[in-house]
Amino acid sequence: AAYSLIAYKTPWLGLNFIVPLALVAGYALQWIWEEPLGHIGLSAAMVVALGISGYQTIDLNFFNYDNDDEYYVYVYAHTRRETLDMLREIDKVVERTKEGGQTGITIVAPEYWPLPWYFRDFTRVGYNGRMSTSSEPIIIAAESQSAEMEQAFGERYKHVNSGFNPAGTYPLRPGVNFLLYVRRDVAPPGP
After folding, report:
1. Per the CB 3.0–4.6 Å rule, which of 68, 102, 129, 156 could disulfide with 75?
2. How far apart are CA 112 and CA 127, in angstroms?
3. Is the peptide bond before 110 cis (omega within 30 degrees of 0)?
4. Is 144 in a helix, a strand, or coil?
5. How do residues 120-135 score in pLDDT, each as one tens digit?
6. Which of 183, 190, 186 is nearest to 155 (CA)?
7. Do strands 125-127 and 157-160 pair parallel, antiparallel, or not at all (unpaired)?
């Protein structure tokens, strides 16, 4: 595991080093270029650097964009792929309600961004950020609100298990996991 001096990820602090590093790199490149056989060494170094940068760019942008556990520890709060599975479950509920973008969704989780983006086509979404009453077909809660959800909504709502972990949560980003509850009359069949 990687450790940092600051408990949260702050990639913007790296911007402070760009200008000094660019100046030093420019000076170093000029010095190497002026040395005998510097053209060949510099060209070889550029090919290697471009190869490594190209590999990392493709890997980070297309394959490991949400791999923040051990591979890219400074990936900054990207939405996990599992969130899309939660959205597919919600789409199934929307089909069963036959209300389309009018389907009501209550979000009681305190951290919910970027859900407003994903639910931009829905007109009845409540971002409460805390436990509240609801009769909407869908409720999204934080993992820490599990006991409160069962107490307040356990009879009328069904927890839709993600299958990703024992708690049945849908990971949004590191440290933020959602529970999906669906009103029993539109819940998916099964236990």
Report:
1. 68
2. 8
3. no
4. helix
5. 999 999 999 999 999 9
6. 183
7. unpaired
